[in-house]
Write a structure and sequence with these properties.
The chain is built from 9 helices and 9 strands. It is of the alpha/beta class. It has a 7-stranded mixed β-sheet with strand order 5-4-3-6-7-9-8, sandwiched between helices. Strand 6, helix 8 and strand 7 form a beta-alpha-beta unit. The longest helix is centred in the first third of the chain and has 21 residues. The chain is globular. Its main location: Golgi. Keywords: Membrane, Transmembrane, Transmembrane helix. It comes from Clitoria ternatea. This is Polysaccharide biosynthesis domain-containing protein.
């Protein structure tokens, strides 16, 4: 997700920025309905002046910052246009401000936040220095530093051994303070545990060298959050880089093929329903 190093400007990115923010504006327009628009628009000599409110469009500060950023930046999001569109379509289909949790903070973070006007968009990042770098230019983003207890080279062993740890099993699975289960993110900020997330994007942490944290804990924890949801409806979980063995194996183990909705490129989309099955021995 981070895509920290600039790459040459791509012609398609201009089109992406335009499509993305038109979509965000349309989403915003669908959620804002002034109760009495005439009271906001003065009438003079029988002619009423038009304002952005009349058209149902009133951009948020985050959207304006995002438009400026992507109009002037030479750095592009890591996901492709078709991959981004899957998440954007889900946000638009919900028809309301949503709770959106994103694993990873990067040059595309302003875009994700702008797609969810009025909602709660929170980013989780493993590198404190990178958080400082991003927030320096985008102070309006909500981001937290996360400490991971895993390394990518442990992925196979963790997948084979987690079933023998009671604190990891589906009926008992929890996150906050769960030190016994290495796959559980046990030290997240309170707001992450106390919010029921409508969407979870997993595009971090790093997972391309042996000492990297890998995305094992992120995938497991997202599955636990979704299964423990108290409200109605499923949690939309998006996993990027499914062309890699670890991401694919953990998706099949914890997010489940039966919950797979669609995918394109290197992105898979799942709808994970709440579960109160106290006898389940596996997630899938």
């Amino acid at each position: 997700m981070k895509n920290r190093y600039p790459v040459p400007e791509r012609r398609w990115f201009v089109g992406l920025a335009v499509v993305a923010f038109i979509g965000a504006a349309l989403f915003l327009a669908s959620t804002i309905r002034p109760s009495d628009p005439t009271s906001l628009c003065p009438v003079s000599h029988g002619i009423r002046a038009r304002t952005r409110v009349d058209d149902g469009y009133n951009p948020t500060p985050t959207q304006l910052s995002a438009i400026l950023h992507y109009a002037t930046s030479r750095v592009v999001p890591q996901q492709s246009v078709s991959e981004i569109k899957i998440s954007l379509d889900v946000l638009k289909s919900l028809g309301r401000p949503s709770n959106f949790l994103v694993f990873g903070l990067g040059h595309d973070s302003l875009m994700w936040a702008s797609f969810n006007p009025g909602g709660t968009t929170v980013f989780l990042e493993e590198d404190p220095k990178w958080v400082h770098t991003v927030l320096k230019d985008a102070p309006g983003l909500r981001a937290h530093t996360v400490r991971y207890r895993t390394q990518l080279r442990q992925a196979k062993d963790l997948l084979l051994s987690y079933r023998s740890e009671a604190a990891c099993s589906p009926p008992n699975a929890f996150l906050r303070g769960n030190e016994a289960c290495k796959l559980a993110l046990d030290n997240l900020p309170d707001e992450v545990y106390e919010t029921e997330w409508d969407l979870i994007m997993i595009d971090a942490p790093k997972g391309y060298f042996a000492e990297a944290p890998g995305r094992m804990a992120a995938v497991y924890s997202a599955a636990v959050m979704a299964r423990n949801r108290k409200g109605s409806g499923a949690t939309h979980v998006f996993l990027h880089d499914v062309d890699r063995k670890v991401e694919k194996a953990y998706a099949e183990e914890f997010l489940c093929k039966k919950n797979y909705v669609n995918g394109v490129g290197r992105l898979w989309h799942f709808e994970v329903p709440p579960s109160n099955d106290t006898s389940a021995r596996r997630f899938c």
